[in-house]
Amino acid sequence: MGRPQRALKDRMERLEDLQIFVHTADNASLSAAARELDLTPAVASAALKRLETALDTRLLVRSTRSLRLTPEGERYLGFARQALAALAAGKASMAQGKNLIGGNLSLSIPSDLGRHVLMPWLDEFQNRHAQVRLQIRISDRLVDMFRETVDVVIRYGKPADSTLVALPLEVGNQRVLCGAPAYFSRHGKPVVPDDLLAHNCLCFMLGDTMYNDWRFGTGDTAQTISVKGDRISDDAELVHRWAVEGRGLAYKSKLDVLQDLRAGRLVGVLTDYATEPYPLYMLCPHRMMLSPTVNTLKAFLGEKIARLLSSV
Question: Most Cβ neighbours (<10 Å): which of 46, 88, 153, 263?
Answer without folding.
Answer: 153
